[in-house]
Amino acid sequence: MIEGAGRAPRRRGAATPRSASGAAQPAPGAPAVVRRQLERLHQLQWLHIPKTGTSFIATIWNYACGQEGLPLDLYVDAWYTAACGNCYDFAVMDRYPKRIYCDPGVLSSRFQTQHRPLEQEWFSADNVVGFFRRPSQRLISGHRDKLHASGFTERVKKRLVESCMTRGAGCYARFPGIAGCSARMLAGSTCADASAIDDPRWDHGQSYVDTAVTNVARLQFVGVTEDWDESVCLFHRMFGGRVNPAEFKDFHSHPGKHGDYDEAELDGFVDAADELVYAAAARRHSALRARYVDGESACEGIVARAGADGGGASRADALSCGARGVQCGHLEGLLDCGECPRHRAPPGTAPACTAGGVCTVEGRNMSERFAWYVD
Q1: SS3 string of the chain?
Q2: 245, 71 in Cβ contact below 8 A?
Q3: Which sign, positive or negative, has the C-alpha torsion 351, 106, 53, 214?
Q4: Quick one: pLDDT at residue 352?
Q5: How far does CA 139 lie from the centroid of its chain?
Q6: Phi, psi values for residue 174, rounded to 5°
Q7: DSSP 8-class letter at 313
């Protein structure tokens, strides 16, 4: 049965059970609850370093927008628009709009998911969180992702493509302005440094390391991509909230990738600046685990981790919007399938959710455009 199609914004004025500390309690039948509720995190801001885990948006959105009412089905297809087919973060936010789903104050008023450098003023107004990845793995991933270079001008990106598109990851890593991404972003500069192309004194980001390491220690939460499940569980150990099984899935995995990349692809290149930053992040992560985790694993006591293997568990799961062919509304009073993704609608139109959980545009059924899984 589909419920709630065409409903008003949820959770406004609805009574929600809370503990004595004021922390939200799980809805009946909710999966995976962290039993030790801690202080709720507010004004959350994400320092999203490229190639360190776009899938972390599942944890952020579940925490900020999925703690009251029905659990969200965050096994959302990464297809956002025809021009953005691998944009899981935008796709999630389109299905579950902030203005309808998110609890006021949990996300920073300037929250963003793109690769924006850290601003020092964030520390006075926001609680900044972030993930870090081994520099060699991050570089190879950037090479595989069409020579990712957030911060380059069109002119410099063209030179990068001309130089390295048909060559290996070592060429990409050595190209002026690529190395030192994490160090620069933590110090307030872009991931890729466009000015390096014409600067013979470019130092691969070494001049940013001291500031970057200092700022790592100021982050409220530090996750490690190589230890994803533990990092997700640590986040909930620190800040509470029920866990959504989609938080353990990699929604941006590259076809054919299983495990780590072969670092021999870098032809011996070492990103010295980012290695220092990663070491600081790993120490910070270990310190947080020591403080908040009593047992051997942060995930002890956290159950219902369906999809933790990164597979498409939701497709086979009877209780999923995609498996039931539901595009919007509530599924059997147990799962929230969200809104019709407005950015999939033709320009100038607004999709509507029918009583049967199907998205239409001006009365027309457009199931293929709004399908849960876009194949």
Answers
A1: CEECCCCCCCCCCCCCCECCCCCECCCCCCCCECCCCCCCCCCEEEECCCCCCCCHHHHHHHHHHCCCCCCECCCCCCCCECCECCCHHHHHHHHCCHHHHCCCCCECCCCCCCCCCCCCCHHHHCEEEEEECCHHHHHHHHHHCCCCCCCCCHHHHHHHHHHHCCCCHHHHHHCCCCCCHHHHHHCCCCCCCHHHHHCCCCCCCHHHHHHHHHHHCCCCEEEEHHHHHHHHHHHHHHHCCECCHHHHCCCCCCCCCCCCCCHHHHCCCCCHHHHHHHHHHHHHHHHHHHHHCCCCCCCCCCCCCCCCCCCCHHHHCCCCHHHHCCCCCEECCCEECCCCCHHHCCCCCCEEECCCCCEEECCEECHHHHCCCCC
A2: no
A3: positive
A4: 95
A5: 19
A6: -85, -10
A7: H
Burial zone of 362 (CB within 10 Å; 0-12 exposed, 13-18 middle, 19+ buried): exposed
Q: Which of 1-10, 41-50, 166-175, 186-195 bottoms out in mean pLDDT, i.e. has the lowest?
A: 1-10
Q: How distant, in Å, are the alpha carbons of 45, 72, 246, 357 from that of 326?
A: 32, 13, 18, 5
pTM of this prediction?
Answer: 0.87
Task: Return all residues near 291 (Cβ < 8 A) that are at least 6 apart.
Answer: none
User: Position of tokens 């948006």?
Assistant: 57
Amino acid, res. 23: A
Measure the CA–CA gap between 106 and 68, rounded to whole angstroms. 13
Spatial contact of 47 and 219, defined as CB atoms under 8 Å apart: yes
Confidence of residue 319 (pLDDT cuts 50, 70, 90): confident
